[in-house]
């Protein structure tokens, strides 16, 4: 069996087990909440988990692709890639307090929509950069700008996920749910990492 298929099956298994645990096996949830409510909140948070896993995939795709074969194909040096990755990290760190406050003001749902649309446009722009005939230096500048903007837009999603999910979970359930949700989130970077490793 192909290694990519095995990895995909493992990710699917972990995600499925996490979902079943949250809905059917969690002692706190079963004791305090109806099955209908537990399944309803799954319909609320699972799509956000998939979206956030895609955020992680887009966020860590460049870091996972920071290998010599990919850099040579793109004409990027390791020093330049360091600047790209640093720009993304700093954009996320500096903007986090502000994206959180803005999401509190506009609401979790609008914050999530803003994050999805903004990150999608940034990732689209990152792809379009390589289709353009501009100078290599200009492409490098725009690559850093849109990569950092992608991180900034994803910050709205982080705040929105916390805000929305907190309304559906009791305080006594939130720790376990955080573990369940993180299992789904890490499907994104894991997919990116293994795809690059297997293709390089």
TrEMBL record:
<dbReference type="GO" id="GO:0005789">
    <property type="term" value="C:endoplasmic reticulum membrane"/>
</dbReference>
<keyword id="KW-0472">Membrane</keyword>
<dbReference type="InterPro" id="IPR011701">
    <property type="entry name" value="MFS"/>
</dbReference>
<feature type="transmembrane region" description="Helical">
    <location>
        <begin position="111"/>
        <end position="131"/>
    </location>
</feature>
<feature type="domain" description="Major facilitator superfamily (MFS) profile">
    <location>
        <begin position="42"/>
        <end position="200"/>
    </location>
</feature>
<dbReference type="Pfam" id="PF07690">
    <property type="entry name" value="MFS_1"/>
</dbReference>
<keyword id="KW-0812">Transmembrane</keyword>
<feature type="transmembrane region" description="Helical">
    <location>
        <begin position="43"/>
        <end position="60"/>
    </location>
</feature>
<dbReference type="InterPro" id="IPR036259">
    <property type="entry name" value="MFS_trans_sf"/>
</dbReference>
<feature type="transmembrane region" description="Helical">
    <location>
        <begin position="80"/>
        <end position="99"/>
    </location>
</feature>
<keyword id="KW-1133">Transmembrane helix</keyword>
<feature type="transmembrane region" description="Helical">
    <location>
        <begin position="6"/>
        <end position="23"/>
    </location>
</feature>
<protein>
    <recommendedName>
        <fullName>Major facilitator superfamily (MFS) profile domain-containing protein</fullName>
    </recommendedName>
</protein>
<feature type="transmembrane region" description="Helical">
    <location>
        <begin position="137"/>
        <end position="153"/>
    </location>
</feature>
<dbReference type="InterPro" id="IPR020846">
    <property type="entry name" value="MFS_dom"/>
</dbReference>
<dbReference type="GO" id="GO:0022857">
    <property type="term" value="F:transmembrane transporter activity"/>
</dbReference>
């Amino acid at each position: 069996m192909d290694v990519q298929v095995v990895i995909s099956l493992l990710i699917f298994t972990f995600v499925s087990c996490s979902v079943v645990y949250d809905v059917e096996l969690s002692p706190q949830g079963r004791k305090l909440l109806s099955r209908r409510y537990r399944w309803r909140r799954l319909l609320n948070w699972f799509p956000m988990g998939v979206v956030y896993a895609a955020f992680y995939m887009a966020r860590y795709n460049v870091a996972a692709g920071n290998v010599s074969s990919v850099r040579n194909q793109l004409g990027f040096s390791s020093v330049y890639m360091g600047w790209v990755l640093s720009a993304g990290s700093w954009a996320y760190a500096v903007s986090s307090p502000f994206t959180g406050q803005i999401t509190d003001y506009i609401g979790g749902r609008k914050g999530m929509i803003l994050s999805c649309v903004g990150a999608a446009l940034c990732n689209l722009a990152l792809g379009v950069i390589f289709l353009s005939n501009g100078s290599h230096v200009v492409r490098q500048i725009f690559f850093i700008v849109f990569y950092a903007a992608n991180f900034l837009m994803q910050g709205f999603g982080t705040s929105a996920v916390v805000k929305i999910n907190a309304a559906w979970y009791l305080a006594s359930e939130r720790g376990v749910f955080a573990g369940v949700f993180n299992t789904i989130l890490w499907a994104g970077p894991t997919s990116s990492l293994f795809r690059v490793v297997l293709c390089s």
